[in-house]
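User: Modeling request: complex.
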Amino acid sequence: MSTAASSTPKGARARARIEVTAAIKEQARRQLAADGAAKLSLRAVARDLGVVSSALYRYFPSRDDLLTALIIDAYNAVGESAETARDEHADAGPRDRWTAVCEAVRQWALTHPHEYALIHGSPVPGYTAPETTIPAAARVGQVFIGILRDAHQGLGVAKPPLPADLRPEAERMAADFAPDLPPETVAALIAAWAQLYGLIGFEVFGQFNRVVEDRDRFFRHAVSQLAHGVGLVYPQTGPTAAAPR
Amino acid sequence: MSTAASSTPKGARARARIEVTAAIKEQARRQLAADGAAKLSLRAVARDLGVVSSALYRYFPSRDDLLTALIIDAYNAVGESAETARDEHADAGPRDRWTAVCEAVRQWALTHPHEYALIHGSPVPGYTAPETTIPAAARVGQVFIGILRDAHQGLGVAKPPLPADLRPEAERMAADFAPDLPPETVAALIAAWAQLYGLIGFEVFGQFNRVVEDRDRFFRHAVSQLAHGVGLVYPQTGPTAAAPR
DNA sequence: CAAAAAAGAGAGCACTGCTCTTGCAATAGA
DNA sequence: TCTATTGCAAGAGCAGTGCTCTCTTTTTTG
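Assistant: Request completed. Predicted assembly structure:
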């Protein structure tokens, strides 16, 4: 109250707390990048910070809470990458924007493999992410939804096929996530979303070693096919152009 | 070299060693299923086996070696599931066989989530799978290749699109993995392979929680689209049938 | 039958997450 | 401004981990 600004409302102690919390996360992220989540040790973080290990428990009640904080940060980082890519391609068509966002997510994953593993690898042992992570986790998906929303206000978007027995589920998903999009599109989008992370995961986790060499081109083509699958069709995009009648 | 028989060549000691090794793996697999890879503890396995922890090191030089053994077993288990599904649908058309194999892999993953995480989740910290795992890891892929091989000897298979700049890579991959298949098909197959594991991973790791409810139908449709993508097209399968001219 | 190899037991080292108590410093209320 | 409260870090300690080493017993082998 005494100091004016709104960003640092409390006294020196509160400010210090914020800084220390950030320093802990930063150091933890460094260890994460170096050795992976399972070798992330509270004691090592404390050691590197020149502080005793029990002191960290004033900031994070447990190792899992530290991990949760890092998970949220990771979701936000990849979400921000996606949003930036979208904004930088605001003038491009929906399909190019789609490609750019996929590429951005991939690049983030390749640059931060351990953080990617944290959010899209096997959940850390017996650990289930708390609800706090949900909004951060949704950001990338929202970007994709936005792209398709835009596409639907223009032209050049087709309705993906949808079997009759999946229609109720597709309508439910559409109502939950994008009421302004057709159920066909929402269902296809969710599938494409999962498949995108399959492609990225295989590359990040080394499953493509000795299999795919020219990964840039391979990914670009796969993503183009995914775009096709959600209805983002160029007027003339090859022999398999979707032709909804 | 000296003793003749191939199944139980050595004396009682060698037989005991095989049994103990199997018991260790079995107990470890139990712990894995219960708590996940990161909580798998050599000491706990030894305790449950009524033996002192250092004794296990006579059988597995390190915890990572135990994990590697479990990884190989897991690859073989899912590979066997895939092969069984293929054989049980030997009379069906390639597309139905494709669907059956995908479904089998998914079911195995849902039944053994922690083992699935072992082979397709984030690699255990700082751990890189040794070359020993390669043949076991390839089994599922071989099943898919076989299905497409069969399909190419019959009808009802289309060539997926392939951009010109990806053709060299596609030809290289085809030469490496399936010289008798067209490069277009091999490239599409590898993409579909990764995407399949994206779908399964999202389901196993809970990313579909609160998103997809009717997962059986959703998966079935997605897999049908994947089949379409690799050229396994029914004569009349909807508006987006591939039509290579 | 004796020498060699294999297996288990047990102690011990360095490390982990986490808890609890103790002393110190910053804050807030009178 | 003085004092009571609160926040923080330090240190010791517990139970657990992977792994190594030595020692004894048992089995195999020459």
